[in-house]
Amino acid sequence: MDNFKIIEIPKIEDHRGNLSVIEGNLLPFALKRVYYLYDVPSGAYRGGHAHIDQLEFLIAISGSFDVVLTGPNGEKKRITLNRPDKGLLIPNMVWRELEGFSSGAVCLVAASDIYKEADYIRDFKQFINYNSI
Ligand code: TYD
Known about the structure:
12 strands
């Protein structure tokens, strides 16, 4: 599973605190939606779906969590996100599961389109079979 990318987010360091910005061509898509997961209870599991068309970019704005990716052939990769200046680009047709949230973790997601339930595959068997149809 190498169908993902870690992208460094430019950082402006300052004694008053750091500032990171996502703009221009940093992401390979035009950003249409931002949402975030927060107040995640310990032991909680999120995700458990793939997108047919949409691309997503995940950032651990605060704290840390693991993202388990599964590709269309069932190959897996676990990635820990724990930096606000690095994000994970997840292409379409990659199954993702989020777990191991630290206390106070915030996961910010930048997406290539507005929320469309029709773009989700929420059944793992359907995801694995999708490419062989
Ligand atoms: P869900 O897909 O289960 O979240 P996660 O990817 O973290 O597992 O979404 C939870 C609920 O929120 C579900 O009813 C759909 C809704 N939702 C929106 O209305 N808009 C959005 O942009 C997102 C991501 C979810």
